[in-house]
Amino acid sequence: MTDAHTAGPFIAAIDQGTTSSRCIVFDKDGRIVSVDQKEHEQIFPKPGWVEHDATEIWNNVQEVVAGAIEKGGITAADVKAVGITNQRETTLLWDRNTGEPVHNAIVWQDTRTDALCRELGRNVGQDRFRRETGLPLASYFSGPKVRWMLDNIEGLRERAERGDILFGTMDSWVIWNLTGGVDGGRHVTDVTNASRTMLMNLHTMEWDEKIAQSIGVPMAVLPEIRSSAEVYGEVRDGVLAGVPVASALGDQQAALFGQTCFSEGEAKSTYGTGTFLLLNTGNKIINSYSGLVTTVGYKIGDEAPVYSLEGSIAVTGALVQWMRDQMGLINSAPEIETLAASVEDNGGAYFVPAFSGLFAPYWRSDARGVIAGLTRYVTKAHIARAVLEATAWQTREITDAMTKDSGVELTALKVDGGMTSNNLLMQTLSDFLDVPVVRPMVAETTCLGAAYAAGLAVGFWPDTDALRANWRRAAEWTPHMDAAKRDHEYTFWLKAVERTMGWLEHDES
């Protein structure tokens, strides 16, 4: 007799992330039954280039699925569906007949398409495809990465136009392999991942043939676009053979779903290496004039799509790692909190971590990091405090931009990700945003979102209300900061941001 906690049925979620792949099994209450995880290699062929070996990733996915099922002491019969969530924008081309990738996957952080993006902007600039796609022309997105491979790999364009080559983000690669690969694998992607390629039209939810032509991507390589919650096919082999593959969501959209932000005006922020804040804007496409991207939040089966505004910050958790690994000012990430809490304030110092340029709301690849406001008074504790404040101020800039674009005032912020264990940071966030900050019981909201969407697709959960009922608050922080003080410090932060810009000339970046 198993205890109530591990009695089935279950939903499994595969999270194919930037640094690792994992599988988590969840029960009816959205609680974690078992987890398995495995890191993969980060490949840096040149400065600014980042790649992954897709074959290694697929092997790891199979391993962690088997591992999670074994650790949970369950069988495929107990698993009603499997959902997929993935690092977004990472781009792969593979041969449909052999199943072999034609090149390493080019990772979202990779900047090799910088010059190509400037060239594609022609006389229009970053906004050339923004009205149709919701995205600025930036090296971050997938379309230009596909073009780079077609231009730089001998004979590839001919093979692609012949129909021998398939393109996919990591959701497509995992689903194709799970459902049979060369032997009838389903070549699909979902609307959230498609909306990050710069090739999908947000208004029609279809590939935009004119844009694909402008960027130089043959239509023959593109997967079929499906909703985020429906059965795409069944797992062909391995421990989950016969289980329906029933959801796909890009990781940040999956976190929005896992945080049950199903109503217009609800927002979540995920604090990891970088930070991603998404605001549900309902069935309305809101064009951003404040430097955010417009993206698909999710689409459940044949219901209308739900859109969102997204603000992405390149460096948050990565700044704490940098303090540890490159500066040696702390020995472990949690120490930053102890050090920062040993002083009352930042001592007048501001740290803007524009290490790889600034993402939202500026999109400036010419910016570089700056520490401003230094005097003899400043100690390493003040710098530690400035490091945490940097994450909070960057979040504040995003929420200001969201209010400006959408007219929706933020009422609370749901948070998740590794940095949320830092209580001082969470309190600082609440103070700087002047709203409550709420952390849920299950911090693994990305996997949970993929599980929820798959469960809805197969009727494991009846509707989104049942999912909301699962959401439990673990902690909440409320603002205690004087408004005049907040405004005064924000002014200094914005001054410091200005000083990061124009550091590199165009030909250097």
TrEMBL record:
It comes from Streptomyces pacificus. GO terms for molecular function: ATP binding; glycerol kinase activity. Belongs to the FGGY kinase family. ADP binds at T18, R22, T273, G317, G418, N422. PANTHER family: GLYCEROL KINASE, SUGAR KINASE. Keywords: ATP-binding, Glycerol metabolism, Kinase, Nucleotide-binding, Transferase. It catalyses: glycerol + ATP = sn-glycerol 3-phosphate + ADP + H(+). This is Glycerol kinase. It holds the Pfam family FGGY_C. InterPro entries: ATPase_NBD (IPR043129), Carb_kinase_FGGY (IPR000577), Carb_kinase_FGGY_CS (IPR018483), FGGY_C (IPR018485), FGGY_N (IPR018484), Glycerol_kin (IPR005999). Its EC number is 2.7.1.30. Pathway: Polyol metabolism; glycerol degradation via glycerol kinase pathway; sn-glycerol 3-phosphate from glycerol: step 1/1. ATP binds at T18, T19, S20, T273, G317, Q321, G418. It is an enzyme of class 2 (transferase). GO terms for cellular component: cytosol. Residues 11-258 form the Carbohydrate kinase FGGY N-terminal domain. Inhibited by fructose 1,6-bisphosphate (FBP). NCBIfam families: glycerol_kin, PRK00047.1. It comes from the Bacteria. GO terms for biological process: glycerol catabolic process; glycerol-3-phosphate metabolic process. Key enzyme in the regulation of glycerol uptake and metabolism. Catalyzes the phosphorylation of glycerol to yield sn-glycerol 3-phosphate. Residues 268-457 form the Carbohydrate kinase FGGY C-terminal domain.
